[in-house]
């Protein structure tokens, strides 16, 4: 961003650059914090931090840059003891809004969503993080490596292990009627 822009111009430029990625930032924050209110706070703090340091952005992938800031803000808060680690599963029922669909299909879909979300929540943080970035935010391996600050090979390995663990959790839950 241009250091010589006025405050209004800087704000408008930042909004144009960052706002299209708000959903991806919230999605990552939601899975990191495991709580929608903490995720809101995390995204707000991360976007404030991004705005403050936007002059340092040198181009490249804006989404990966913003998600890196979300991730750093989360881990900084954990390190500083600011974040409380909640263990609340993401509730798919809160986000369903298709009233025209078959009620039985809606219930089945929500049950499946809850089951997958519960299994995803059981994954270790490093595995859950790469799986969310890849499968939900559709980031490339290179982007995930940039966000998590790990080599691409590590990203690929974690992603493979995350998928195997997720499948095992889902099979285990299925066998136990969960």
Automatic annotation (TrEMBL):
Source species, domain of life: Bacteria
GO biological process, one term: DNA-templated transcription initiation
Boundaries of every RNA polymerase sigma factor 70 region 4 type domain copy: 117-166
Record-annotated RNA polymerase sigma-70 region domain positions: 20-82
Family matches, as InterPro entries: RNA_pol_sigma-70-like (IPR039425), RNA_pol_sigma-70_dom (IPR014284), RNA_pol_sigma70_ECF_CS (IPR000838), RNA_pol_sigma70_r2 (IPR007627), RNA_pol_sigma70_r4_t2 (IPR013249), RNA_pol_sigma_r2 (IPR013325), RNA_pol_sigma_r3/r4-like (IPR013324), WH-like_DNA-bd_sf (IPR036388)
Keywords: DNA-binding, Sigma factor, Transcription, Transcription regulation
SUPFAM superfamilies: Sigma2 domain of RNA polymerase sigma factors (SSF88946), Sigma3 and sigma4 domains of RNA polymerase sigma factors (SSF88659)
Keyword tRNA processing recorded: no
One Gene Ontology term of the molecular function aspect: sigma factor activity
Similarity comment: Belongs to the sigma-70 factor family. ECF subfamily.
Entry protein name: RNA polymerase sigma factor
Species this chain originates from: Rugamonas rivuli
């Amino acid at each position: 961003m241009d250091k010589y822009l006025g405050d209004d111009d800087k704000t408008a430029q930042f909004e144009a650059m960052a706002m299209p990625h708000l959903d991806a930032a919230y999605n990552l924050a939601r899975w990191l914090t495991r709580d929608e209110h903490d995720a809101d706070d995390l995204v707000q703090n991360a976007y404030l931090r991004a705005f403050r340091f936007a002059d340092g952005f040198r181009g490249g992938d804006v989404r990966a840059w913003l998600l890196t800031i979300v991730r750093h803000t989360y881990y900084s808060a954990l390190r500083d003891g600011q974040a409380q680690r909640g263990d609340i599963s993401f509730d798919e029922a809160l986000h369903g809004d298709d009233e025209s669909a078959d009620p039985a299909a809606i219930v089945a879909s929500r049950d499946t969503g809850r089951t997958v979300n519960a299994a995803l929540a059981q994954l270790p943080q490093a595995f859950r993080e790469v799986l969310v970035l890849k499968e939900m935010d559709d980031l490339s391996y290179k982007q995930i490596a940039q966000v998590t600050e790990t080599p691409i090979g590590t990203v690929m390995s974690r992603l493979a292990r995350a998928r195997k663990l997720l499948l095992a959790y889902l099979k285990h839950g299925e066998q136990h009627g969960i």
